[in-house]
Amino acid sequence: MRRVASWILVGASLVTIGATQAPKSPDPVKEKRLEWFRDVKYGMFIHWGLYAIPAGEWNGKRSLGLGEWIMNRAQIPVKEYEKLATKFNPVKFNADDWVQLAHDAGMKYIVITSKHHDGFAMFKSKVSPYNIVDATPFKRDVLKELADACAKRNMRLGFYYSQSQDWHEPGGAGNTWDFGPDQGPDQKELKPYDKYLREKAEPQVRELLTGYGPIALIWFDTPRMMTPERGQRFADIVRSMQPNTLIDGRLGTEGDYRSTGDNVIPAESSTEAWETPATINDTWGFRADDTNWKSPGQITFKLIDIVSKGGNYLLNVGPTAEGVIPQPSQDILRTVGRWLKVNGDAVYGAQHSPFGDELGEYSARGAKDVRGQKLFLPQTEWRVTTKPGKLYFTFFSEPRTPFEIPAIKNRIRGAYRLADHAPLELKTESGKTTFNMPRPMLDPMATVVVVEFEGERIER
Ligand code: FHN
Predict the structure, then answer these.
(1) How many Å lie between the centroid of ligand 1 and the Cα of residue 41?
(2) What's the whole-number average pLDDT of the chain?
(3) What is the spatial order of strands in the sheet that 382-387 belongs to?
Protein backbone atom coordinates (compact mmCIF):
# COMPACT_ATOMS: atom_id res chain seq x y z
CA MET A 1 0.00 0.00 0.00
CA ARG A 2 1.25 3.48 -0.79
CA ARG A 3 0.49 6.12 1.78
CA VAL A 4 0.25 9.72 0.61
CA ALA A 5 -1.61 12.30 2.65
CA SER A 6 -2.56 15.97 2.45
CA TRP A 7 -2.21 18.22 5.46
CA ILE A 8 -3.33 21.47 6.92
CA LEU A 9 -1.62 23.54 9.57
CA VAL A 10 -3.61 24.10 12.73
CA GLY A 11 -1.80 26.42 15.14
CA ALA A 12 1.72 25.09 14.97
CA SER A 13 0.67 21.46 14.36
CA LEU A 14 0.15 19.67 11.13
CA VAL A 15 -2.85 17.42 10.80
CA THR A 16 -3.89 15.15 8.00
CA ILE A 17 -7.03 15.96 6.07
CA GLY A 18 -9.37 13.33 4.78
CA ALA A 19 -9.11 11.67 1.40
CA THR A 20 -12.46 13.24 0.43
CA GLN A 21 -10.79 16.64 -0.07
CA ALA A 22 -10.02 17.09 -3.78
CA PRO A 23 -6.31 17.80 -4.34
CA LYS A 24 -5.68 21.24 -5.83
CA SER A 25 -4.08 21.12 -9.26
CA PRO A 26 -0.48 22.31 -9.03
CA ASP A 27 0.24 25.95 -9.85
CA PRO A 28 3.08 25.86 -12.44
CA VAL A 29 4.58 29.18 -11.26
CA LYS A 30 4.73 27.96 -7.68
CA GLU A 31 6.11 24.59 -8.76
CA LYS A 32 8.91 26.34 -10.66
CA ARG A 33 9.75 28.45 -7.60
CA LEU A 34 9.83 25.30 -5.52
CA GLU A 35 12.19 23.29 -7.74
CA TRP A 36 15.37 23.92 -5.74
CA PHE A 37 13.56 23.47 -2.45
CA ARG A 38 12.26 20.06 -3.40
CA ASP A 39 15.79 18.94 -4.30
CA VAL A 40 17.91 20.22 -1.43
CA LYS A 41 16.20 18.41 1.48
CA TYR A 42 18.40 19.62 4.32
CA GLY A 43 18.91 23.13 5.69
CA MET A 44 20.37 24.95 8.68
CA PHE A 45 18.08 27.03 10.89
CA ILE A 46 19.83 29.64 13.04
CA HIS A 47 18.11 31.27 16.03
CA TRP A 48 20.34 34.10 17.13
CA GLY A 49 19.52 37.27 19.00
CA LEU A 50 19.84 39.18 22.28
CA TYR A 51 18.39 36.19 24.16
CA ALA A 52 21.74 34.43 23.70
CA ILE A 53 23.11 36.70 26.47
CA PRO A 54 20.83 35.55 29.33
CA ALA A 55 21.06 32.04 27.81
CA GLY A 56 18.18 30.76 29.95
CA GLU A 57 18.86 32.66 33.18
CA TRP A 58 17.42 36.00 34.38
CA ASN A 59 18.50 37.81 37.54
CA GLY A 60 20.30 34.70 38.74
CA LYS A 61 17.23 32.49 38.30
CA ARG A 62 16.80 29.74 35.77
CA SER A 63 13.95 30.55 33.42
CA LEU A 64 12.34 27.44 31.99
CA GLY A 65 11.34 27.02 28.36
CA LEU A 66 12.87 27.98 25.05
CA GLY A 67 15.94 30.23 25.22
CA GLU A 68 14.51 32.79 22.79
CA TRP A 69 11.29 33.08 24.85
CA ILE A 70 13.02 34.38 28.01
CA MET A 71 11.60 37.91 27.68
CA ASN A 72 8.10 36.45 27.67
CA ARG A 73 8.64 33.68 30.24
CA ALA A 74 10.31 36.00 32.76
CA GLN A 75 7.96 38.89 31.81
CA ILE A 76 10.93 41.19 31.34
CA PRO A 77 9.83 44.80 30.74
CA VAL A 78 10.91 46.28 27.41
CA LYS A 79 13.06 48.89 29.17
CA GLU A 80 14.99 46.12 30.98
CA TYR A 81 15.33 43.74 28.05
CA GLU A 82 16.47 46.55 25.73
CA LYS A 83 19.60 46.95 27.86
CA LEU A 84 20.84 43.62 26.52
CA ALA A 85 21.53 45.38 23.23
CA THR A 86 24.21 47.53 24.88
CA LYS A 87 26.00 44.30 25.89
CA PHE A 88 25.68 42.44 22.61
CA ASN A 89 29.19 42.16 21.21
CA PRO A 90 29.68 38.78 19.50
CA VAL A 91 33.32 39.31 18.61
CA LYS A 92 33.84 35.67 17.64
CA PHE A 93 31.17 35.82 14.92
CA ASN A 94 32.56 34.78 11.56
CA ALA A 95 30.03 34.38 8.74
CA ASP A 96 32.42 32.31 6.61
CA ASP A 97 32.82 29.79 9.45
CA TRP A 98 29.06 29.38 9.78
CA VAL A 99 28.61 28.86 6.04
CA GLN A 100 31.54 26.44 6.06
CA LEU A 101 29.83 24.46 8.82
CA ALA A 102 26.56 24.30 6.86
CA HIS A 103 28.54 23.17 3.83
CA ASP A 104 30.45 20.51 5.79
CA ALA A 105 27.17 19.33 7.29
CA GLY A 106 25.73 18.73 3.82
CA MET A 107 23.10 21.42 4.39
CA LYS A 108 22.03 23.27 1.27
CA TYR A 109 20.26 26.33 2.65
CA ILE A 110 20.43 28.55 5.72
CA VAL A 111 17.54 30.34 7.41
CA ILE A 112 18.47 32.86 10.13
CA THR A 113 16.31 34.89 12.51
CA SER A 114 16.30 38.46 11.18
CA LYS A 115 13.86 39.47 13.91
CA HIS A 116 12.40 37.08 16.46
CA HIS A 117 9.46 37.74 18.78
CA ASP A 118 11.59 40.02 20.98
CA GLY A 119 11.47 42.59 18.17
CA PHE A 120 15.23 43.09 17.87
CA ALA A 121 16.46 43.31 14.27
CA MET A 122 19.70 41.49 13.56
CA PHE A 123 20.24 43.80 10.58
CA LYS A 124 20.60 47.52 9.90
CA SER A 125 17.07 48.87 9.76
CA LYS A 126 16.03 52.40 8.91
CA VAL A 127 12.58 51.68 10.30
CA SER A 128 13.58 50.99 13.89
CA PRO A 129 16.76 51.91 15.77
CA TYR A 130 16.30 48.71 17.80
CA ASN A 131 18.74 46.88 15.57
CA ILE A 132 22.20 45.33 15.74
CA VAL A 133 23.98 48.18 13.95
CA ASP A 134 22.40 51.12 15.78
CA ALA A 135 21.87 49.67 19.25
CA THR A 136 24.89 47.47 20.01
CA PRO A 137 28.60 48.04 20.50
CA PHE A 138 29.15 45.45 17.75
CA LYS A 139 27.65 47.73 15.05
CA ARG A 140 27.96 45.08 12.31
CA ASP A 141 25.12 43.91 10.08
CA VAL A 142 25.48 40.17 10.59
CA LEU A 143 22.87 39.38 7.96
CA LYS A 144 24.85 41.30 5.36
CA GLU A 145 28.02 39.43 6.32
CA LEU A 146 26.16 36.13 6.15
CA ALA A 147 24.60 37.03 2.79
CA ASP A 148 28.05 37.81 1.38
CA ALA A 149 29.51 34.58 2.79
CA CYS A 150 26.59 32.55 1.37
CA ALA A 151 26.99 34.18 -2.04
CA LYS A 152 30.68 33.10 -2.09
CA ARG A 153 29.76 29.46 -1.37
CA ASN A 154 26.56 29.23 -3.46
CA MET A 155 24.62 28.64 -0.26
CA ARG A 156 20.99 29.74 -0.37
CA LEU A 157 19.96 32.14 2.38
CA GLY A 158 16.51 32.75 3.84
CA PHE A 159 15.30 35.03 6.64
CA TYR A 160 13.05 34.12 9.54
CA TYR A 161 10.84 37.11 10.35
CA SER A 162 8.35 37.20 13.23
CA GLN A 163 5.64 39.18 11.49
CA SER A 164 3.02 39.13 14.19
CA GLN A 165 4.62 38.78 17.59
CA ASP A 166 6.83 41.72 18.48
CA TRP A 167 7.21 42.14 22.22
CA HIS A 168 9.10 45.42 21.82
CA GLU A 169 6.24 47.34 20.20
CA PRO A 170 2.97 48.43 21.82
CA GLY A 171 1.10 47.28 18.69
CA GLY A 172 2.96 44.01 18.15
CA ALA A 173 1.30 40.79 19.30
CA GLY A 174 2.36 38.97 22.43
CA ASN A 175 3.62 41.49 25.01
CA THR A 176 0.80 41.56 27.53
CA TRP A 177 3.00 42.43 30.53
CA ASP A 178 3.97 45.88 29.18
CA PHE A 179 1.12 46.68 26.83
CA GLY A 180 -1.98 44.70 27.95
CA PRO A 181 -3.96 42.13 25.97
CA ASP A 182 -3.71 41.76 22.20
CA GLN A 183 -6.64 43.02 20.15
CA GLY A 184 -9.14 40.54 18.72
CA PRO A 185 -8.65 39.20 15.20
CA ASP A 186 -11.78 40.76 13.71
CA GLN A 187 -11.20 44.46 14.37
CA LYS A 188 -11.03 46.16 11.01
CA GLU A 189 -10.07 49.74 11.82
CA LEU A 190 -6.45 50.81 12.05
CA LYS A 191 -5.55 49.72 15.58
CA PRO A 192 -2.07 49.59 17.09
CA TYR A 193 -1.49 46.14 15.58
CA ASP A 194 -2.03 47.38 12.03
CA LYS A 195 0.05 50.44 12.80
CA TYR A 196 2.87 48.12 13.89
CA LEU A 197 2.42 46.01 10.75
CA ARG A 198 2.49 49.04 8.44
CA GLU A 199 5.24 50.95 10.20
CA LYS A 200 7.63 48.22 11.28
CA ALA A 201 6.96 44.67 10.05
CA GLU A 202 6.06 45.36 6.43
CA PRO A 203 8.85 47.91 5.86
CA GLN A 204 11.39 45.61 7.53
CA VAL A 205 10.43 42.75 5.23
CA ARG A 206 10.98 45.18 2.34
CA GLU A 207 14.41 46.01 3.76
CA LEU A 208 15.28 42.32 3.93
CA LEU A 209 14.31 41.89 0.30
CA THR A 210 16.32 44.91 -0.79
CA GLY A 211 19.78 44.89 0.67
CA TYR A 212 20.84 41.24 0.81
CA GLY A 213 20.79 39.84 -2.73
CA PRO A 214 18.45 37.05 -3.80
CA ILE A 215 16.59 35.70 -0.78
CA ALA A 216 15.70 32.01 -0.95
CA LEU A 217 12.75 32.26 1.40
CA ILE A 218 11.05 34.26 4.11
CA TRP A 219 10.18 32.14 7.11
CA PHE A 220 7.20 33.79 8.81
CA ASP A 221 6.09 32.40 12.17
CA THR A 222 3.25 32.28 14.73
CA PRO A 223 0.57 34.05 12.65
CA ARG A 224 -1.40 35.43 15.60
CA MET A 225 -4.11 37.86 14.45
CA MET A 226 -2.96 37.39 10.85
CA THR A 227 -6.17 37.65 8.88
CA PRO A 228 -5.94 36.60 5.22
CA GLU A 229 -5.88 40.31 4.27
CA ARG A 230 -2.99 41.08 6.60
CA GLY A 231 -1.10 38.03 5.42
CA GLN A 232 -1.72 38.89 1.80
CA ARG A 233 -0.02 42.27 2.24
CA PHE A 234 3.19 40.44 3.19
CA ALA A 235 2.78 37.96 0.34
CA ASP A 236 2.35 40.87 -2.08
CA ILE A 237 5.53 42.52 -0.78
CA VAL A 238 7.51 39.30 -1.28
CA ARG A 239 6.03 38.53 -4.70
CA SER A 240 6.50 42.05 -6.02
CA MET A 241 10.05 42.49 -4.75
CA GLN A 242 11.54 39.01 -5.29
CA PRO A 243 9.16 36.74 -7.22
CA ASN A 244 11.41 33.69 -6.73
CA THR A 245 11.49 33.98 -2.93
CA LEU A 246 9.54 31.23 -1.21
CA ILE A 247 7.08 31.86 1.60
CA ASP A 248 6.87 29.21 4.31
CA GLY A 249 3.64 27.82 5.74
CA ARG A 250 3.25 30.10 8.75
CA LEU A 251 2.36 33.46 7.23
CA GLY A 252 -1.33 33.20 7.93
CA THR A 253 -2.27 33.04 4.29
CA GLU A 254 -1.22 30.45 1.74
CA GLY A 255 2.53 30.11 1.32
CA ASP A 256 4.56 28.00 -1.06
CA TYR A 257 4.97 24.94 1.13
CA ARG A 258 3.66 23.34 4.28
CA SER A 259 5.45 23.86 7.57
CA THR A 260 4.91 21.12 10.13
CA GLY A 261 4.73 21.80 13.84
CA ASP A 262 8.07 22.18 15.57
CA ASN A 263 9.90 18.85 15.63
CA VAL A 264 6.88 17.15 14.08
CA ILE A 265 7.61 14.54 11.44
CA PRO A 266 4.36 13.39 9.86
CA ALA A 267 3.57 9.69 9.87
CA GLU A 268 2.98 9.56 6.13
CA SER A 269 4.24 10.87 2.78
CA SER A 270 2.91 13.84 0.91
CA THR A 271 3.51 14.97 -2.66
CA GLU A 272 3.13 18.58 -1.53
CA ALA A 273 6.36 20.41 -0.67
CA TRP A 274 6.83 20.51 3.11
CA GLU A 275 9.43 21.11 5.80
CA THR A 276 9.98 20.10 9.42
CA PRO A 277 11.71 22.76 11.54
CA ALA A 278 13.56 21.00 14.34
CA THR A 279 15.87 21.50 17.29
CA ILE A 280 19.19 19.74 17.72
CA ASN A 281 18.71 19.85 21.51
CA ASP A 282 15.51 21.17 23.15
CA THR A 283 15.79 24.90 22.50
CA TRP A 284 16.12 27.15 19.44
CA GLY A 285 17.91 30.15 20.94
CA PHE A 286 21.01 29.30 23.00
CA ARG A 287 20.51 28.08 26.58
CA ALA A 288 23.66 27.38 28.55
CA ASP A 289 22.01 24.47 30.38
CA ASP A 290 20.60 22.58 27.39
CA THR A 291 22.93 19.72 26.57
CA ASN A 292 20.26 17.29 25.45
CA TRP A 293 21.85 16.85 22.02
CA LYS A 294 20.38 14.46 19.49
CA SER A 295 22.98 11.99 18.29
CA PRO A 296 24.28 11.91 14.69
CA GLY A 297 22.42 8.60 14.29
CA GLN A 298 19.14 10.18 15.40
CA ILE A 299 19.64 13.13 13.06
CA THR A 300 20.47 10.82 10.16
CA PHE A 301 17.36 8.76 10.80
CA LYS A 302 15.15 11.86 10.96
CA LEU A 303 16.65 13.24 7.75
CA ILE A 304 16.09 10.03 5.79
CA ASP A 305 12.66 9.52 7.36
CA ILE A 306 11.65 13.03 6.22
CA VAL A 307 13.09 12.64 2.72
CA SER A 308 11.37 9.27 2.34
CA LYS A 309 8.08 11.10 3.03
CA GLY A 310 8.81 13.88 0.54
CA GLY A 311 9.87 16.65 2.95
CA ASN A 312 12.78 18.87 3.97
CA TYR A 313 14.59 18.95 7.33
CA LEU A 314 15.45 22.41 8.69
CA LEU A 315 17.69 21.69 11.64
CA ASN A 316 18.49 24.44 14.13
CA VAL A 317 21.62 25.70 15.82
CA GLY A 318 21.61 28.37 18.53
CA PRO A 319 24.85 30.40 18.57
CA THR A 320 26.18 31.92 21.80
CA ALA A 321 26.34 35.63 22.62
CA GLU A 322 29.95 35.54 21.45
CA GLY A 323 28.86 34.39 18.01
CA VAL A 324 29.96 30.76 18.29
CA ILE A 325 27.87 27.77 17.25
CA PRO A 326 28.18 25.38 20.22
CA GLN A 327 30.90 22.77 19.63
CA PRO A 328 28.60 19.77 20.24
CA SER A 329 26.25 21.07 17.51
CA GLN A 330 29.20 21.46 15.18
CA ASP A 331 30.49 17.96 15.90
CA ILE A 332 27.09 16.33 15.39
CA LEU A 333 26.46 18.21 12.15
CA ARG A 334 29.87 17.38 10.73
CA THR A 335 29.46 13.66 11.56
CA VAL A 336 26.17 13.60 9.63
CA GLY A 337 27.87 15.61 6.89
CA ARG A 338 30.59 12.96 6.51
CA TRP A 339 27.87 10.32 6.12
CA LEU A 340 26.12 12.45 3.52
CA LYS A 341 29.33 12.91 1.55
CA VAL A 342 29.31 9.16 0.94
CA ASN A 343 25.56 8.53 0.88
CA GLY A 344 24.12 11.84 -0.33
CA ASP A 345 22.76 10.26 -3.53
CA ALA A 346 20.01 8.73 -1.40
CA VAL A 347 19.00 12.22 -0.22
CA TYR A 348 19.59 15.14 -2.59
CA GLY A 349 17.07 15.23 -5.41
CA ALA A 350 15.48 12.01 -4.16
CA GLN A 351 11.74 11.47 -3.99
CA HIS A 352 9.49 9.87 -1.42
CA SER A 353 8.98 6.16 -0.91
CA PRO A 354 6.83 4.41 -3.48
CA PHE A 355 5.80 1.97 -0.71
CA GLY A 356 4.68 2.98 2.77
CA ASP A 357 4.36 -0.13 4.89
CA GLU A 358 7.94 0.32 6.14
CA LEU A 359 6.88 3.52 7.97
CA GLY A 360 4.77 1.67 10.53
CA GLU A 361 1.05 1.37 11.12
CA TYR A 362 -1.83 2.84 13.04
CA SER A 363 -2.68 1.16 16.32
CA ALA A 364 -5.08 -1.69 15.59
CA ARG A 365 -6.63 -1.13 19.01
CA GLY A 366 -7.74 2.39 18.11
CA ALA A 367 -5.36 4.04 20.60
CA LYS A 368 -4.97 7.85 20.40
CA ASP A 369 -1.82 9.98 20.58
CA VAL A 370 -1.37 13.05 22.84
CA ARG A 371 -3.24 15.22 20.32
CA GLY A 372 -6.18 12.82 20.26
CA GLN A 373 -5.27 11.61 16.75
CA LYS A 374 -5.07 7.93 15.79
CA LEU A 375 -1.86 6.57 17.30
CA PHE A 376 0.79 5.76 14.72
CA LEU A 377 3.32 3.08 15.66
CA PRO A 378 6.43 3.85 13.62
CA GLN A 379 8.93 1.27 12.44
CA THR A 380 12.51 2.36 12.23
CA GLU A 381 14.39 -0.51 10.58
CA TRP A 382 14.65 0.99 7.10
CA ARG A 383 13.44 3.77 4.80
CA VAL A 384 13.47 4.10 1.03
CA THR A 385 13.91 7.04 -1.32
CA THR A 386 13.87 6.94 -5.09
CA LYS A 387 15.21 8.48 -8.29
CA PRO A 388 14.48 7.45 -11.88
CA GLY A 389 15.55 3.80 -12.21
CA LYS A 390 16.84 3.57 -8.61
CA LEU A 391 15.58 2.72 -5.15
CA TYR A 392 17.77 3.68 -2.18
CA PHE A 393 17.13 1.44 0.82
CA THR A 394 18.68 2.96 3.96
CA PHE A 395 19.05 0.48 6.84
CA PHE A 396 19.40 1.77 10.40
CA SER A 397 19.89 -1.66 11.89
CA GLU A 398 20.81 -5.02 10.42
CA PRO A 399 17.79 -6.09 8.39
CA ARG A 400 16.10 -9.45 8.64
CA THR A 401 17.91 -11.88 6.37
CA PRO A 402 17.09 -12.33 3.59
CA PHE A 403 15.64 -8.87 3.03
CA GLU A 404 12.66 -8.93 0.70
CA ILE A 405 12.23 -6.06 -1.74
CA PRO A 406 8.57 -4.99 -1.72
CA ALA A 407 6.78 -6.31 -4.82
CA ILE A 408 7.18 -4.18 -7.94
CA LYS A 409 6.29 -4.85 -11.58
CA ASN A 410 9.56 -3.41 -12.94
CA ARG A 411 12.38 -5.83 -13.75
CA ILE A 412 15.18 -5.50 -11.20
CA ARG A 413 18.60 -5.04 -12.77
CA GLY A 414 20.88 -5.37 -9.78
CA ALA A 415 21.82 -4.12 -6.33
CA TYR A 416 24.93 -2.65 -4.70
CA ARG A 417 26.01 -0.91 -1.52
CA LEU A 418 26.19 2.84 -2.15
CA ALA A 419 29.27 3.53 -0.02
CA ASP A 420 31.67 1.17 -1.83
CA HIS A 421 29.62 -0.02 -4.81
CA ALA A 422 30.04 -3.64 -3.60
CA PRO A 423 27.50 -5.68 -5.58
CA LEU A 424 24.88 -7.65 -3.65
CA GLU A 425 23.54 -10.94 -4.90
CA LEU A 426 19.82 -10.92 -5.67
CA LYS A 427 17.65 -14.05 -5.52
CA THR A 428 14.23 -14.27 -7.11
CA GLU A 429 11.91 -17.10 -6.12
CA SER A 430 8.13 -17.29 -6.55
CA GLY A 431 8.09 -13.66 -7.68
CA LYS A 432 9.91 -12.43 -4.54
CA THR A 433 13.32 -10.79 -4.84
CA THR A 434 15.64 -10.84 -1.85
CA PHE A 435 19.21 -9.97 -0.88
CA ASN A 436 21.40 -10.58 2.14
CA MET A 437 23.05 -7.60 3.73
CA PRO A 438 26.70 -8.41 4.57
CA ARG A 439 27.24 -8.41 8.37
CA PRO A 440 28.24 -6.42 10.24
CA MET A 441 26.74 -3.51 8.33
CA LEU A 442 29.39 -1.38 6.64
CA ASP A 443 28.22 1.71 8.51
CA PRO A 444 26.29 0.81 11.68
CA MET A 445 24.72 4.31 11.75
CA ALA A 446 23.04 3.79 8.38
CA THR A 447 23.95 1.74 5.31
CA VAL A 448 22.42 2.39 1.90
CA VAL A 449 21.71 -0.28 -0.71
CA VAL A 450 20.84 0.84 -4.23
CA VAL A 451 18.47 -1.34 -6.22
CA GLU A 452 18.36 -0.54 -9.93
CA PHE A 453 15.20 -1.25 -11.88
CA GLU A 454 14.03 -0.91 -15.46
CA GLY A 455 11.95 2.13 -16.30
CA GLU A 456 11.84 5.56 -14.71
CA ARG A 457 9.26 4.97 -12.00
CA ILE A 458 8.19 2.14 -9.82
CA GLU A 459 5.10 0.30 -10.97
CA ARG A 460 3.21 -1.80 -8.48
O1 FHN B 1 7.75 30.70 19.01
C2 FHN B 1 8.58 30.24 17.99
C3 FHN B 1 9.83 29.57 18.51
O4 FHN B 1 10.52 30.47 19.30
C5 FHN B 1 10.69 29.13 17.34
O6 FHN B 1 11.09 30.22 16.57
C7 FHN B 1 9.90 28.16 16.50
C8 FHN B 1 10.63 27.63 15.29
O9 FHN B 1 9.77 26.88 14.51
N10 FHN B 1 8.68 28.82 16.02
C11 FHN B 1 7.80 29.33 17.07
C12 FHN B 1 7.02 28.25 17.73
O13 FHN B 1 6.45 27.40 16.82
Answers:
(1) 20
(2) 93
(3) 382-387, 390-395, 447-453, 412-417, 423-424
Question: Domain segments of the chain: what residues?
Answer: 6-346, 357-453
Ligand 1 atom at minimum distance from 66 CA: 4
- Residue 134 DSSP class: H
Question: What is the fold, at CATH topology level, of the domain defined by 6-346?
Answer: TIM Barrel (3.20.20)
Q: pLDDT for 302-346, tens place per residue?
A: 999 999 999 999 999 999 999 999 999 999 999 999 999 999 999
DSSP lists the bridge partners of residue 13 as 10
- Residues of the chain with pLDDT > 90: what percent? 89
In tens, the pLDDT along 169-187 reads 999 999 999 999 887 655 5
Across residues 367-383, what is the average pLDDT? Answer: 93
What architecture is the 357-453 domain classified under in CATH? Sandwich (2.60)
Q: Is 243 helix (H, G, I), strand (E, B) or coil?
A: coil
Closest ligand 1 atom to 12 CA: 13
CA–CA gap between residue 448 and residue 213 (Å, rounded): 38
Distance 397 CA to ligand 1 centre (A): 33
Q: Which atom of ligand 1 is nearest to the CA of 259?
A: 9
CA of 11 to the centre of ligand 1 (A): 11
